[in-house]
Amino acid sequence: MAMRAAMHRAGATALSQLLRSDLPVRMSAKCLVRAVREPVTGRCAHGACSPLWARSSCCRPWYLCPHCHNGQCPADAVLDIEKTDLSPGVRRMLALVGSEAPFDHGRQQVELLAGLAVTAKAVERTAEATGADIAAGEKREISAPCN
């Protein structure tokens, strides 16, 4: 367990350094010209092996257009955690355990195997959202014209 904890700390440190760097920003040209970079703290996202960053340990650049008030954090887009605090790997884990057993049992499995403290409601929501995404993809595939 000590080796695992050390590896998690090393990975979190490396990721924190990456997130502090300038990443590509996807804003409209009009907004990008006006966007002001501001440091943002206070958000914690859960990765499959460890928190992606601690609440106060990592300032991520946030770009905000003072004209239209549109903002974005490029690091969140790169990590696919916009509008969520769960990484894609954690979302896959929760969807899997949520589809196999009662949600609270899945929560316990995730805590035991990955060391992540999540709620049964998070397992339920993630499993249901993933199922809806899969169903929508299958529907698109079925209705797509044959080549």
Jot down its keywords:
6 helices; 3-stranded antiparallel beta sheet; flat; mainly alpha; 2 domains; 12% strand; 5 strands; two-stranded antiparallel ribbon; 147 residues
Structural overview:
The strands form 2 sheets. The protein has a 3-stranded antiparallel β-sheet. Strand 4 and strand 5 form a beta hairpin. The chain has 6 helices and 5 strands. It has 2 domains: 78 residues, no CATH class; 56 residues, no CATH class. With 147 residues, the chain is mainly α. The longest helix is centred in the last third of the chain and has 24 residues. Helices cover 54% and strands 12% of the residues.
What is this structure's SSE topology?
Blueprint: H1 2-20, H2 29-34, E1 36-40, E2 45-46, E3 51-53, E4 60-64, E5 71-72, H3 74-79, H4 88-100, H5 103-114, H6 120-143
Helix pairs in contact: 4-5, 4-6, 5-6
Radius of gyration: 18 Å
Classify the beta-strand content into a percent band: 5-15%
What's the N-to-C terminus distance? 53 Å
Average of pLDDT: 76
> Which runs of at least 5 residues are low in confidence (pLDDT < 50)?
53-57
Question: How many domains, in number, for the residues?
Answer: 2
Strand order of the largest sheet: 1-4-5
Sheet of most strands:
3 strands, antiparallel
At a glance:
This protein is mainly α.
